Amino acid sequence: MRLQCEVEVISRLLPTCGLRGRGRGTRALLSLGRPGGCGGGGVYLMVCTARDRVGARYKVQENIERFFTRFVEEGKATVRLREPAVDVCLSKANASNLKTFLSAVRLAHQGTDAGALPLSTLVPAKTSEVEKPKAKMIITSRRDYPLTKNFPYSLEHLQASYCKLARIDTRVLCLKKLRKLDLSHNHIKQLPATIGDLVCLQELDLHDNHLESFSWALCNSTLQKSLQFLDLSQNKIKALPIQFCQLRELVNLKLDDNELIRLPFKIGQLDRLRFLSAARNKLPFLPSDFRKLCLENLDLFGNPFEQPNPLVPNIQLKIPLTLLECAARATVNSRIPYGCHLLPSHLCEDLEVAKTCQCGGACLSSFIQITVTMNLHHVAHTVVLVDNMGGTEAPIICYFCSLDCYSQFLDRYLQSNG
C-alpha cells in the first residue's frame, strides 16, 4: 500500500539537545510492505523523498506508541514510533486514502496476518512519485515549447509567449487547475470555446496576437464565475459581443490598441470592474451604461471621440408605439421574467439590449438618441487624459423614450448653458 503526501520525521530526542524540528514537511511516498515483497521479514513503513528515493524504513509491528488522527479529515496525521523515537508527521494527503493507509498500519502494528494486509513491495520510489507537483511554467521562445511531452497537469500558471503559436494548444485546455494563462506575443487568430472549461482560470493574457473577435460562447462559460483579469490589447478586435458583460467577476480589463468602434452596450453590468483601458481604438462615443461604472483607473487616450451636440438628436420614434414596443417596455419596466422557453430567442435578445431613458423607463426600437459630454472623473478616481489638450471629458450616448422626456432634458440643458 502506498500514500503520497508531505512528511516530516521529527526526532523526540531533539528537544533534549536544545534543537527543534524544521516545522515543514517535504513531498514523500509512504509504502507499507516487506523487503523484497511478501516473502519474509517484518512489515515496515518506508518513507521515500526526492533526496532519498531509496527510503528510510521503520519497523511497524508492536513498534507504534500512538496515532494522532484529530485532523485526519484535513489530510493530516502523526504516527509516533517507539524505536527510533521519532514522530512521522503526515500532511496534505487525500483524506480518504490517509484513513485507509492508517488502518492498514494499525493492523500491521497489531500483528495481523500479512496475507490480510494490502502490502507493497518496498522498492525505491520513482522521481515522479516524490517530486513536488509543478505549479508554474514559463516559456519565452519557440525552441523551448514542449512538442513531444505533455504539460504537467498540476500547472496553475502557464506562460507561453513569443512562441509563434497560431492557435491554442489543446493540451493546455486539459490543465484544469490553471489559474493564470499567458499566451501574449503569439499569432493566435481565434479562441476555442473550450477555454471556458478551465474552471479555475482567473487571469487570461492574450496581449499582442491576431484576434479579430471574442467568442460569445466564452462569455456564457464558467469564466463568468472565475475570470478577473483579461488582456486583449494589441489585437484586431472591432467589437465585443453583447454577452461579454456576463463576465461579472472582471476586475481588470485591457483593450488598448485594437479597432474597437464601440464598447459593450451593457458595460455597466461589470460592477466589479476597477481598471479599464481602451486607449488608441476607434471609439466615437461611450455607451449610456458607462455611467454605472465605478473605476479606480481609466485610460481612453487616443480615441477619435466626436464632438457632442445635444441639439441635433437622432430621432427613431415611432408614433404611435407599436404593440411590440409597448409589450417590450412593459416587460422590462415591470421586471417580468422571460426566457427562450416563453419567447422566441430573437425577442429575448432584443429585451437584453433594451435602452434606458433618462426617466428610468425602457425603450427598444423607438427612441431619441443624443450625445452629451461627461467628465470621466464621475466614474473613475484616476483618469488618463483623453487627448493631448489635457481633457478628461468624453461624449456619451443618452436615450429618451418620448418627446416629453427629451423636451425636459432640453429645457434643463438650455438653462444650464444660459
UniProtKB/TrEMBL annotation:
PANTHER family: LEUCINE-RICH REPEAT PROTEIN 1, PTHR48051
The name this protein goes by in its record: Leucine-rich repeat protein 1
Domain PIF1/LRR1 pleckstrin homology: 1-120
Alphabetical keyword list: Leucine-rich repeat, Nucleus, Repeat, Ubl conjugation pathway
UniProt GO cellular component terms: cytoplasm; nucleus
Keyword Metal-binding belongs to the record: no
InterPro entries for the chain: Leu-rich_rpt, Leu-rich_rpt_typical-subtyp, LRR_dom_sf, LRR_domain-containing, PIF1/LRR1_PH
Gene that encodes it: Lrr1
Keyword Repeat attached: yes
Compartments (UniProt record): Nucleus
Task performed by this protein: Substrate recognition subunit of an ECS (Elongin BC-CUL2/5-SOCS-box protein) E3 ubiquitin-protein ligase complex which mediates the ubiquitination and subsequent proteasomal degradation of target proteins. ECS(LRR1) ubiquitinates MCM7 and promotes CMG replisome disassembly by VCP and chromatin extraction during S-phase. May negatively regulate the 4-1BB-mediated signaling cascades which result in the activation of NK-kappaB and JNK1.
Species, as recorded: Thinocorus orbignyianus
A Pfam family this chain is assigned to: PH_LRR1
Annotated pathway: Protein modification; protein ubiquitination
